Amino acid sequence: MTDALARIHAAFADAGVTGRLHALDIDSGAQLDAGADQPVCTASVHKLCLLVTLHEQAAAGLLDLTEQVECSPQTRTTGPTGLAAMLDGARLSLRDLAYLMMSVSDNAAADQLLHRVGLDAVNRTTARLGLARTLAVHTFGELLATIKEDAGPGGARSLADPLVVTRLRALDPARTNRSTPRDMTRLLAAVWRDEACTPEHGAAIRRILGLQVWPHRLASGFPFDDVHVAGKTGSLPTVRNEVGVVEYPDGGRYAVAVFTRTARTSALLPAADAVIGTAARLAVDALRAP
Questions:
Q1: What DSSP state is assigned to residue 135?
Q2: Max CA separation in the chain (angstroms)
Q3: Which residues form the Beta-lactamase class A catalytic domain (predicted)?
């Protein structure tokens, strides 16, 4: 494990990021800790907590996942994907909104679901599961609003200025949606063990996590046809995250959470994306070693 940790820290340094990681063998409990208890801003990773809450409420009969929701373009949260990028009205079920929220990280879909279940319900769910350092502070629309406000009159262009980025509340775990890598692997393990929800709803959550379209972070470390990766990314200025579960054909199941920050403000940093997969692979290989 010591050699694996050294290689993980070296990979983070080579990619120009500060990284926090926790990896957990879901069945044996073996783990690897690289800053696993450090508070981190979750960004869109927090959509996983919302997804579990949605299915918990459905299992309790508090909502029907086939319930239809009108999604007006005038009131949608902004974003580059899914409903957030669409121009016309739409009507979708709660479960299809959940699919968009997780597969393409649709902010508008996420806030439609938050409007239905509420932030307090999300926090009750994470508390019930023992995630003591995980907290939802605001909706995704509110999160984006803090970035706009903190960026000032220069707007999005000012986010290229490192001094502007340092004042963003969205990047301060004390003032935004937050967790730790260990809390996130605990949540994933609960989903994979059917401890977070009933088996029916646990299977639905796992299915949706397996439909994420982004291959450039966690999945990039496991380029094998017989290894399945299911996860959720999260991104903000200088922040690139992903949490997920890697499943091997021999039955091995590994929950991995990687959270990174970089000093560079560029929106495109392929090395910073790829190191998430590299670090995850190093961690899982260490857990699988004889």
A1: B
A2: 57
A3: 21-260
Residues 171, 239 contacting (CB under 8 angstroms): yes
Using the Cα atoms of residue 47, residue 25, residue 125 and residue 60 in order, give the sign of their dihedral: positive
- Contact by Cβ (8 Å): 145, 151: no
Q: Are 94 and 25 in contact (CB under 8 A)?
A: no
Q: Which of 105, 63, 104, 109 is nearest to 90 (CA)?
A: 109
Contact between 173 and 39 (Cβ < 8 Å): yes
pLDDT for 150 equals 94
Is residue 146 within 8 Å of residue 168, measured between CB atoms? yes
Q: Strands 31-34 and 253-262, how do they pair?
A: unpaired
Residue 63: which of 116, 108, 130 has the closest Cα? 116
The answer to whether residues 45 and 69 touch, using CB atoms and an 8 Å cutoff, is no
- C-alpha dihedral sign at 34, 257, 214, 234: negative
* CB-based burial label for 160 (10 Å; 0-12, 13-18, 19+): middle
Which token pair is 214? 């982004």
- Parts of the chain with a pLDDT under 50: none
For the chain, report the end-to-end CA distance as a whole number of angstroms. Answer: 12
Per-residue model confidence as pLDDT tens digits over 118-160: 999 999 999 999 999 999 999 999 999 999 999 998 888 889 8
Report pLDDT digits (tens) over 243-278: 999 999 999 999 999 999 999 988 899 999 999 999
Reduced to 3 states (helix: H, G, I; strand: E, B; else coil), residue 278 is helix
CB 31 within 8 A of CB 256: no
CB 95 within 8 Å of CB 64: no
Closest CA to 150 of 136, 119, 135, 171: 171
Strands 253-262 and 17-25: antiparallel
